């Protein structure tokens, strides 16, 4: 009997010694393809396996259970990895748990179901989120106004707002593109869709969509938006019941003195902004810093804030990167005026040259939202009709990593934020 017990103990110790994990490092030196590493992590979660996200350890590394299948997937996708022993994994986790280290191990529990709000058909611009999801091989589904108004968002954990104008002003493209065939067709399609859904104006229909998205977030959803989808979303909510569109957009004049009727209490992130009245100005409001900034491309960088991983794991997750200094990039909405951001919204990335906010995050009801200024992290001045970015040329892009941090965020077992 004693021999049997000793044998069982020896077998157990032996198994513990030989048990292993896969460590996917995310620092500069250790990882050849940061973007596809997120895809492998998501793929592992889809297999109903848990992953530990090691915040601030080697650039926000991932600790996965070891298997030949996962190793093979890393190799196929070109993702750098190490197989480490159980004792080595314990050593890393104990070090991370030390109060002296600004690190934390966050458990990722299940692959979030992802939706991208985007119109059907080919658009004359590209969307950074759909490009990086495709490159990382993370599956997503598309929804648009009809699905949103029919409460399809309840099926998803994460929603991205594609390059969009929720104000009914067709992206303020009027001056430059009103004679372009794609602009004329887009306007016709938007009017037809609004009519089919029972609305007399596109602005009214877009407001209804924005309110459904608002309710989705309040109910516990996660919304991520870039470029013009950020400020136009808040403007639409703030202008409920007010006509801010000029005749070329909706066929009748705007309300007199509409600036004084804006209700900032209805917005997610912004306050005290002034709307741009002219239809010939490619701008929605004073929220955007594009026309105010005087920063040369060569020195245009924004800095990621440093948060306490143990006390504030949420912003720490969203800021994981292999560098704290990220290349800037332009867009219709390039960045956000600091003074027009609500006090309960967290600035996670800023350009220190002029204090503009680039990357912000907030809580709304039971849900979360992140706004990221600019259009394409690897195309400084992406214009309508420009060729899309080939991410094979940018597999370690820190700007695109921020998008993928947000994609994985809903998978995390949350702790209450302290600040």
Automatic annotation (TrEMBL):
It comes from Psychroserpens algicola. This is Asparagine synthetase B. The keyword Signal applies. It comes from the Bacteria. Residues 1-19 form the signal peptide. Keywords: Signal.
């Amino acid at each position: 009997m004693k021999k049997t017990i000793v044998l069982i103990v020896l077998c157990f110790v032996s198994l513990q010694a030989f048990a292993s994990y896969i460590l996917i490092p995310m620092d500069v030196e250790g990882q050849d393809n940061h973007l596809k590493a997120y895809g492998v992590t998501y793929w592992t979660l889809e297999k109903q396996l848990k992953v530990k996200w090691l915040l601030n350890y080697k650039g926000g590394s991932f600790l996965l259970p070891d298997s030949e299948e996962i190793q093979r997937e890393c190799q196929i996708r070109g993702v750098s990895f190490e197989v480490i022993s159980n004792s080595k994994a314990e050593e890393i986790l104990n070090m991370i748990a030390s109060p002296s280290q600004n690190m934390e191990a966050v458990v990722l529990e299940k692959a979030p179901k992802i939706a991208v709000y985007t119109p059907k058909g080919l658009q004359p611009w590209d969307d950074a989120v759909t490009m990086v999801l495709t490159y990382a091989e993370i599956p997503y589904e598309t929804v648009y106004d009809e699905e949103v108004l029919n409460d399809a968002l309840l099926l998803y954990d994460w929603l991205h707002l594609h390059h969009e104008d929720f104000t009914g002003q067709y992206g303020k493209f009027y001056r430059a593109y009103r004679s372009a065939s794609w602009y004329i067709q887009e306007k016709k399609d938007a009017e037809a869709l609004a009519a089919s859904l029972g609305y007399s104006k596109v602005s009214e229909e877009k407001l209804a969509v924005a309110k459904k998205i608002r309710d989705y977030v309040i109910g516990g959803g996660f919304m991520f938006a870039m470029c013009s989808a950020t400020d136009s979303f808040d403007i639409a909510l703030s202008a409920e019941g007010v006509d801010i569109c000029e005749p070329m957009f909706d066929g009748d004049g705007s309300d007199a003195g509409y600036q004084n009727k804006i209700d900032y209490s209805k917005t997610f992130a912004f306050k005290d902004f002034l709307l741009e009245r002219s239809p010939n100005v490619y701008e929605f409001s004073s929220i955007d810093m594009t026309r105010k900034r005087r920063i040369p491309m060569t020195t245009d960088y924004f800095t990621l804030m440093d948060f306490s991983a143990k006390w504030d794991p949420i912003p720490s997750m969203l800021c994981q990167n292999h560098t704290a200094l990220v290349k800037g990039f332009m867009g219709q909405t390039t960045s956000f005026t600091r003074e027009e951001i609500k006090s309960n919204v967290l600035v996670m990335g800023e350009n220190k040259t002029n204090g503009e906010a680039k990357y912000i995050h907030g809580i709304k009801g039971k849900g979360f939202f992140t706004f990221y200024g600019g259009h394409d992290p690897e195309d400084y001045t992406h214009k309508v009709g420009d060729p899309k970015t080939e991410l094979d040329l940018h597999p370690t892009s820190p700007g695109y990593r921020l998008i993928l941090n947000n994609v994985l965020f809903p998978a995390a077992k949350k702790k209450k934020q302290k600040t």
